[in-house]
# Entry
Amino acid sequence: MSELIAQEALPGLVAKWLAQGKRVAGPSVVKPGYCLYVELKSSAQLALEGFIRPRNSIKEFVFPHHEAICRYHFSGHTVETEDCDPPQVDQVIVGARPCDAAALPILDHLFTWDYEDKFYTERRKATTVVTLACQAHDDACFCTSLDLGPAAEQGSDVLLLAVPGGYEVRCLTDKGRALFAGETRTVEQTAVVPPGPPVMVAPGTIMAFLQARYDDPMWADLALRCLGCGACAYTCPTCHCFDIVDEGTAAGGCRVKNWDCCQFAMFTQHASGHNPRSGQSQRQRQRIQHKFRIYPEKFGVMLCTGCGNCARNCPVGLGVLSTLKETAGSAPVEVGV
Amino acid sequence: MGRIGVFICWCGENIARAFDMDELTEAVAEIPGVRCAIHYKYMCSEPGQALIREKIRSEKLEAVVVASCSPHMHLKTFRAAAAAAGLNPYLVEMANIREQCSWVHEPYEDETVAKAVSIIRMTVHKVLRNRALEPIRVPLTKRALVVGGGVAGIQASLDLADSGYEVVLVEREPSIGGKMAGLSETFPTLDCSQCILTPRMVEVGQHPNIRLYTYSEVESVEGFVGNFNITIRQKARYVDIEKCTGCLECWNRCPSREAPSEFDYGLTKRKAIYVPFPQAVPARPIIDLNSCAKFLRNECGTCLKVCQANAINFDDQDMLVTEQVGAIVVATGYRMYDIGREQENAKYAGYGEYGYGQYRDVIDSLQFERLLSASGPTGGEVKRPSDGAVPKKVVFIACVGSRDNAKGIPYCSKICCMYTAKHTMLYKHKVHDGQAHVFYMDIRAGGKGYEEFVRRAIEKDGARYHRGRVSKITEENGKLIVRGADTLAGAPVTIEADLVVLAAAMRPATGVLELAQKIKLGYDEFGFLSESHPKLRPVETNTAGVYICGACHAPKDIPEAVAQASAAAGKVQVLFSKGELTREPEVASVNEQTCAACFACVRTCPYLAIDKAEIRDRQGNLRKMTARVNPSLCMGCGTCVAVCPSKSVDLEGFSEEQIYEMVNGLI
Amino acid sequence: MTGQLRERCRRLLQDGAVQVVIGYGVSTSDGMPHPIFVRRPDDVDKLIWNEQCMANLTTYLTRDAVKALGKPAIVVKGCDARALVVLEQECQIDRSAMHVIGMACAGVGSPRAPKCASCDVHVPAAADEVIGEAPAQTGPADPPYAELEEFLQKSPAERFAYWREEAARCIRCYACREVCPTCYCPRCIVDKNRPACLDTSATVKANFAWHVTRAFHQAGRCTGCGECTRVCPVGINMRLLNQSLARAADEHFGYRAGTNRETPPIIGAYGLEDKESFIR
Amino acid sequence: MSEDFEPKIVAFVCNWCTYLAADLAGTNRLEYPPNVRILRLPCTGRVDFNLIIKALEMGADAVVVSGCHPGDCHYTAGNYHARRRWILFRELLETMGIETNRIFFSWISAAESKKWQHMITEITDQIREMGPYTAYHEISEATA
# Structure
């Protein structure tokens, strides 16, 4: 037995949520060949087929690209500052991929472990994630290598699984049940989920390998190719580094929290001019070490969901998977190519 | 840094007429960073400057903004005042709320007050980013270049040479002397022009400190104040003036005589090899290519044969010479307005109706000077160019071209009234039974003894002055029928004259625009060179180290030209009096850390002030290339800053930060 | 052509003529050719050449890590080779200290990259050697700025709305800057904060200013390799902006970037008679 | 347009020519509307395109850039460099749809105070007619 909604009902639901004043985001083909998660102005923008996964991730809606955290205003010789509160608007992310949804619990660790970043947590509470299970995958996908899969439930409030003529609806949390209350009808058949990509790298061995090979010259050879742009980090569902900068005019301005990327030369540039990670090889090593050793050592979970965005968006075809294969690949584990 | 003092000037009532000064000062006091804002009637006066000094000390100000007139007027004054109080002068800026606000906008209107506050806020934002700077010390070449060998150029050269400085005098004509050498007597004292000029010319010719380049032109000017690099083109004279002994046998024996004499303005012909005029300095001949048979038809060569000193050299070539000088005095003088129909510039128009160039007896005033001059074509006797008869009735027409918008010359040429009166007197002294008529608009005789001079011409020498314009001149059976009007008599006037002299307008010398562009000098719409400030700095220009004097600046008579020449020489002496030159420190500098060494700035710099430099570590291996600015060459134009993609080069005084903060404060 | 390329590179490496070959190789993950750095003769078999070799490898010539590898041999297509001229004019590379292997190219990318329709450099100019023959001309190349001309048919308001939309999507990952061979500044203007000419936040205003800045820095320098537009994760068509300036340089000053070493770059030079009709 | 709209005009002028022309306009008491804000730079060669964009971002409705006539530049070539950049930059602005009829370039020598007065008056009226540059101001206000 499973709950079902009709194929065309979903856009109707989106229109209803929009009408209720909710902020709705989902995949949309903004240009031929470019499917991105965007804030939907109308249900027509929603696209659910014709792509493996959007090029960006849903982190934008819980951890926005730029966000004013406090405003200041000069008047005479005094400066008035006022804190900004995150917008109190419910939002629904519909059509998210499991590897996007699974990223949210991973990020929860970071934004709550010592200082509760209310900009993140407030948005996270107000967000309902309606995940759509994958029907297909490409060479870049490796969610299975991280104990996830095409129908992984981590981080989702509702999981939709495509069935002929509609979607099976699995409400996983109260938020999810509230959202889909009364919208579904019970039917016999349950969805059949096609298998995910083969396991390519074993997480267990990666941490030990990275620990041992910190000063290995392989990083230098590997990073020769990397151009130091932010395409991988900014489209990665789990990358969460940010920079705080004041932007304003003589009349006043605001303190803004912006995304930042460890591959940029300026990321670790000291005011003295010294840069502990001046070469691209150190930065590439840092990215892999942080995702697959440093973060797991601290929070017990890999900082990656195997979505493959880094490989798809990398101008020179690097990405995390190929790096792991070329490095950890030499580790003694069955590696399917 | 936030202790800014803003001093708002009333400027008498020039500024106070547009604002409620208390209200404005309160608004300014609110600007972030302003420590104290006060207003005072005359900030540039001694008490005003004392107020600034006192406030700097008492309020421990870190920077000063004076809201008053244009920085071009008193920035130096206020920076000096601040320096006297121990504040670095480059931490003083001016907010122009007079020329660019109170004088041009509606007084007491909200927008005008808002604009003034906005201008002051912009300047406060700029000064918050100013840095304390020290002037750049630059070595100084204590030699001067004087361009133009007329009376002004001669006077400036002699003053400088007499004060011990070397002078390079460049004169375009074969001899120095300029227009004054061709005059007869000069007003108001009727001194003979040659008698007072020739000794000066000889003195220039023999002065040990003056290096004279005649028949030469300035080819190019590089460098900057204190360090000019001048290239001079010594045009080919075809006579070696070192070897030539001045016997002038070649001049006597030369058969060709058809070229019109430039010195006599075409009244006579001269030989192919000639000395312009008897008192020429250097008194050495020159060969004119266009009329010398040797060059035209490869015949004759008499001069070569007769010259014992074999100083004649037919294959002489132009020669380029370079001179290092520290200052330039431009004294290029004037030329007569082309009274004939076609003009070299469409802005101006000629007088077809006076028949100049058509009737031989209609001449201009310089030609008449030649007729009056003892060394002139007629030996000083007044004879008509057409038939040589002594004219019994001569009509002088003033303001030919001058004060006439239709001809493109709205200005008054200042000296024509005086020399026309002089012409009537000299004519009377030479032709006792002759009658002079003068058509004039207004008599301008404002100099010392000038008015009395003109009264004497009218009352004692009987010149008949008609206040009115001449409409047309026609020639009927040997007589020139001058039709005009006499507005005081209220009747038309027709005079049958034997000779007509036109007092034409003064225009800047030909080629002065090209010279100005070589020296980077400003000029006005008529081509007269622009002084830095008509009252405060009349002989200086906006180009440091370049001074102007004489008619190249504006129409003026000999006394004024000589006075300006001495003033210009004085200014050069001030410049040379210091051991070295201090230059404004507002120059560019490169952040060699972030410079990408693409050298777009090196390509862009008009002064070649930026070079490619290497950065090597202690072991000597090359770490990176970078651009590097030579502060003594950089003039602070900032073109490199705008062309640098990574903004690695910045200009002190107009830095990126300052300008962005100014845009920030504007709106 | 892959075989010839491998043979040439093997000999170059064996003779020690070059220390590294910067070429295209297939990486494990997605079978697409990506830049690789071959330093041992027997690794040359990793080198391949096919119509998917899109990257402009000349951008690596200004990277310190790559310079440290010694004298390179570099594989270039026609559009990439033009960048070598620009880099040399701007004193970033010593053309004599590298060996340029030009590949005759009939067009890359499937579907064919937009730049190839109007390509007139099928055989790279100024290469030390060329592998392969010029492809049979299948008809005249399209006019170079067709895409721009068509875009300019829109009204200014429509164009502004279009770029406002593109700017809204930009996430400032700077992939366009990093792949571009002519963007080699050690510290980009966008990374400077005294003053902050450009805000680092990805607001519409700041993104607009960023794209104006990036595009104008390509005036007379962009060689039309189209990499910036190919690699943009959010699909911003920067080729239009580059074409706008390339066309301006072509029409006003008859200057095409990277085609003639002798003519000085147009920014930093000036003409006494530059024609214009808008200065009052 | 609403009559109470007062255009904001930013003028980047060169110190040697147009700034002096503005001063001369003051000395001659040549009235012109107060909407323009004059910013003194050493030379038009110093004006880089970022400044124009920054002025628009700050809410300007029109930008004027003016300096010495070609050939008269105090630094010999600043205005030539500027002209070349403006020719290219204007094409880029056209492509981006920025209203180039709000960006004015001119040569005004130190003597042409009347030309300065007429130009500023004409531009102010023209912009008052066109109204504020709302399109650009919207993207400026749309911050975080």
In short: The mean pLDDT of chain B is 92. The first strand of chain B starts at residue 4 and ends at 9. Chain B is about 25% helix and 25% strand.
